[in-house]
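Support request from a user on the community tier.

User writes: "When I paste my structure tokens into the form, the page sometimes reloads and wipes my input. The last time it worked, I copied everything first. Here is what I submitted, just in case something in the input itself triggers the reload:"
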């Protein structure tokens, strides 16, 4: 009797499991992206946002911070605090996204330009040195000329940090030692002059004697 009850319980359990294994679970009803739908009146399976709703994290009512403008005009003040760490972050984003065209020093002669791409803008032109910070933010966000938008790759606050780094580049172009506070000058990093500029060691394997000045009988 007990064996019969056990076998019956096992059989019932297996039956319950089999009822769950239906083909419908494997081929669930869903739409492929942008496929036509017979359910909605407009036949679109991809539904538009509900009017008046904003996705979490996308409530951007600060026009200056998220558009770089006020009343349609480029702003000339940073809408977020800028500290040394922000400029360093801006340098990092600049080197990744901007330097291929504008070069790491911002003169518009990046590697892709040297290989035949259209000449990029130099940040040291009169026009761009006088341009408000909002102009740079707008160009990064929306593109300009041959430059595409980088809005999908650089988040808004990082765009302002890139702009801050561009301003630092522009300042450094005409800066002198007198612009550095006296108590900070000892912290400046002094880079050695490139070969051929000023005193220094010649590159390995370089003969310091010009060919025309070699003594008679010297090995050639």
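"...and here is what came back when it finally went through:"
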């Amino acid at each position: 009797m007990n064996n019969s009850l056990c076998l019956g319980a096992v059989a019932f359990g297996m039956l319950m499991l089999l009822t769950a294994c239906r083909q419908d679970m494997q081929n669930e009803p869903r739409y492929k992206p942008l496929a036509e739908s017979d359910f909605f009146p407009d036949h679109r399976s991809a539904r538009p946002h509900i009017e008046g709703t904003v996705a979490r994290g996308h409530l951007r009512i600060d026009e200056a911070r998220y558009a770089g403008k006020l009343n349609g005009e480029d702003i000339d003040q940073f809408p977020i605090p800028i500290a040394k760490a922000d400029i360093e972050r801006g340098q990092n984003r600049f080197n990744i996204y901007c330097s291929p065209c504008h070069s790491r020093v911002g003169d518009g002669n990046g590697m892709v330009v040297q290989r035949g791409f259209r000449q990029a803008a130099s940040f040291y032109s009169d026009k761009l040195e006088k341009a408000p910070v909002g102009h740079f933010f707008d160009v990064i966000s929306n593109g300009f000329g041959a430059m595409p938008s980088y809005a999908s790759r650089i988040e808004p606050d990082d765009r302002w940090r890139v702009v801050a780094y561009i301003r630092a580049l522009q300042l450094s172009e005409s800066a002198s030692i007198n612009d550095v506070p006296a108590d900070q000058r000892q912290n400046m990093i002094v880079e050695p002059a490139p070969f051929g500029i000023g005193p220094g060691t010649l590159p390995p394997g370089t003969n310091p004697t010009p060919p025309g000045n070699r003594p008679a009988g010297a090995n050639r």
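Agent notes: The reload is a front-end session timeout and is unrelated to the input. The chain has eight helices and two strands. Confidence is low (pLDDT under 50) at residues 195-203, 208-220. Escalated to web team.
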